[in-house]
Write a sequence for this structure.
């Protein structure tokens, strides 16, 4: 189908309309109808993934382009590659799981479900957009449903958390708007596919553009403004330390399904933005600040782990763990930024060419260049895979926190204990998902984090070594949550009023996430074969820009 991406992206809006047209009194019809309808875009995206996997990398595939806003040279242009397509599948995978877990909600069910479909379209739109203006519009639309999900269906402090969420993310949106305007003025186009080519870069190293002299500032200053605007915006979305403070509040107060979507897919917009826009469009600036990114990534991994360790609120513990795990995405981004224009790979290639007369030395430089480029490819593959694996494990953990909160009406770990004996299904599923979050070998989190560590080791050794502190503490906080929840004597409150075990709807919502963690842990090539083609092309492009 020539318009398959548009169908997948906008099909959830059809589901939103259908849900709103259903009778408000038919709660079960609305909920099950939404779950069934959400399987349609999932099936289409899985078909697309299978079809894409049969191709070799040839740029963006399934592209659609049409005139949209000719006055500013913006177009409706969509397409996917090996970085964006797995995230499209992940987004569609999480929606039915979130809706199943949310079936306990009885408050304004139609509006609640409709917001999930609107959120789904906005996220899909970001991943398929190949026009900066279109990218920005879909990004901003996504703020609306998430704000209302927290504000209307959240916890006791939902007003504070929702406004903090909207203020932080609106700031990120304004920064993106500024960067988008600067790039449009510099290059006279907003087309991402054009901007990613060496000739289409908005700021050529030795060239001029329309920004030179604007407001009395040279082109280089405008380039720096655009770079920092994008970097701060996407850093907020990952989020990296110290731009993370909105996340624990948003997670803690959001309804369970909202937390699943927020951790599972919305945080990935930050990592995706770095790999899609920041590093390819600003290779020199990315190289210069690669170590700074690595430092912030290290701090996110270590401090996020310590913060999680210190929590007795189960949901806050899982929220801080997201900062810890997304730090590995930022570390992979730092590794690929380091080989951008003029980085180690380009330098070694230049040395090799200059010393071609000295065969052994030239061969040595060439081998070193290959090693650096391969390391960057491994780290970037790991970063993309980490976005997928964290999406599965974090969504599952938030779902399980929601399951026990719905029964006990508390998230205080000190009040639990011994739940394994009264909720054996819950206990078995919690241990599996916690091990996935921990990065147990055989589950997906191990593969992605190992690849980031291996790929970043050669160039960012000290920051990887320090990050190992965070890995150690990760084991501590995961085991703490299991010990306080499942082991020991049953909490006094539940001895005479046992909590009911997981029901079939909750199991159906979590088990597919567990299957995904296991499948990618045993056979990561299922996704890596697609990711690797695009990542390899990206690294080669960055080297050429040197």
């Amino acid at each position: 189908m020539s318009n398959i991406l548009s169908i997948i992206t906008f099909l959830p809006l059809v589901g939103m309309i259908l849900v709103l047209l259903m009778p408000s009194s038919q709660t079960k019809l609305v909920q099950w109808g939404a779950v069934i309808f959400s399987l349609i875009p999932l099936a289409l995206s899985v078909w697309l993934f299978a079809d894409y996997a049969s191709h070799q990398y040839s740029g963006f595939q399934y592209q659609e382009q049409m005139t949209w806003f000719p006055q500013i040279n913006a177009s409706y242009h969509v397409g996917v590659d090996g970085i964006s397509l797995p995230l499209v599948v992940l987004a569609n995978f999480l929606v039915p799981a979130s809706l199943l877990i949310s079936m306990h909600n009885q408050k304004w069910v139609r509006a609640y479900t409709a917001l999930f479909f609107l959120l789904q379209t906005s996220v899909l739109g970001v991943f398929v957009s190949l026009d900066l203006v279109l990218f920005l519009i879909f990004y901003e639309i996504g703020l609306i449903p998430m704000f209302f999900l927290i504000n209307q269906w959240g916890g006791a402090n939902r007003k504070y958390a929702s406004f903090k969420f909207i203020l932080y993310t609106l700031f990120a949106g304004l920064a993106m708007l500024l960067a988008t305007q600067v790039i449009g003025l510099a290059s006279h186009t907003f087309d991402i596919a054009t901007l990613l080519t060496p000739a289409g870069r908005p700021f050529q190293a030795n060239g001029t553009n329309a920004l030179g002299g604007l407001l009395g500032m040279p082109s280089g200053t405008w380039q720096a403004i655009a770079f920092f605007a994008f970097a701060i915006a996407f850093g907020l979305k990952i989020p990296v330390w110290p731009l993370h403070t909105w996340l624990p509040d948003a997670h803690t107060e959001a309804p369970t399904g909202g937390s699943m979507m927020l951790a599972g897919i919305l945080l990935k917009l930050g990592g995706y933005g770095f790999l899609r826009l920041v590093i390819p469009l600003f290779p020199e600036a990315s190289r210069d600040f690669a170590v700074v990114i690595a430092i912030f990534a290290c701090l996110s991994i270590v401090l996020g782990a310590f913060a999680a360790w210190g929590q007795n609120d189960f949901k806050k513990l899982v929220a801080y763990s997201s900062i810890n795990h997304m730090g590995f995405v930022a570390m992979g981004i730092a590794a690929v930024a380091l080989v951008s224009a003029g980085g180690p790979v380009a330098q070694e290639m230049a040395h090799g060419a200059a010393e071609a007369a000295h065969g052994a030395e030239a061969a040595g430089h060439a081998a070193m260049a290959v090693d650096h480029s391969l390391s960057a490819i491994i780290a970037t593959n790991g970063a993309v895979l980490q976005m997928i694996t964290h999406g599965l494990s974090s969504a599952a953990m938030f779902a399980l926190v929601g399951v026990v909160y719905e029964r006990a009406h508390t998230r205080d770990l000190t009040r639990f204990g011994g739940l394994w004996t009264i909720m054996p299904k819950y206990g078995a599923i919690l241990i599996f998902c916690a091990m996935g979050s921990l990065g147990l070998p055989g589950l997906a989190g191990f593969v992605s984090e190992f690849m980031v560590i291996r790929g970043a080791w050669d160039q960012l050794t000290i920051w990887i070594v320090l990050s190992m502190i965070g890995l150690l503490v990760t084991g501590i906080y995961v085991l703490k949550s299991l010990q306080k929840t499942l082991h020991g004597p049953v909490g006094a409150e539940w001895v005479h009023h046992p909590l009911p075990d997981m029901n079939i709807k909750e199991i159906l919502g979590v088990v597919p996430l567990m299957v995904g963690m296991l499948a990618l842990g045993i056979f990561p090539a299922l996704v890596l074969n697609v990711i690797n083609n695009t990542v390899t092309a990206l690294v080669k492009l960055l080297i050429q820009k040197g």
About this structure: The first strand starts at residue 61 and ends at 69. Confidence is low (pLDDT under 50) at residues 344-354, 365-369. The beta strands are 61-69, 74-80.
